[in-house]
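A further point concerns the way the authors explain their paired sequence and structure data. The central task, working out the structure tokens from the amino acid sequence alone, is never made concrete. I therefore recommend that a typical entry be quoted early in the introduction. An entry of this sort, consisting of the sequence and the corresponding backbone structure tokens, reads as follows:
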Amino acid sequence: MAIEKVRNYLAQWNVEHKIQELNESSATVELAAQALGCEPERIAKSLSFQVNDGAILIVAAGDAKIDNAKYKAIFGTKAKMLGKDEVLEKIGHEVGGVCPFGVNAGVAIYLDESLKRFTTVFPACGSSNSAIELTISELETYTPYQEWVDVCKGWNE
């Protein structure tokens, strides 16, 4: 189960105990915000894309949407999300539990600027009923990310 993979991954920083396993679904931004009692924009959603021959993850705020022009300027291609049936195989987590922890080797991870306006955010932890509250600094520490990017819209207008 992917939550166990995430738990083992986060154990290297001794923070696996901070994972919250919820009684209800946190598979969407709205459900996660409701289950956690926080604003939807503080949910750190992980979006899966196909870029050339590989998969990437972009972790963005819950109220952010991909801006195709910004995305293409950075990645050199049109934003093409992975299909639901491709996500587990290419990323290592199922839709609803995708997170930047314990992903498959070769998956490049990017953090979107939309997250920087919060003190803490809530990424999933590999299942559709889990999350962890992290500061932005902790998110940077625990995520093997490539760089911060600005590829979203809708959150700063």
Summary: The chain has one domain: 2-148. Residues 14 and 50 are 32 Å apart (CA to CA). Helices lie at 2-10, 29-36, 68-75, 84-91, 136-142. The mean pLDDT is 94.
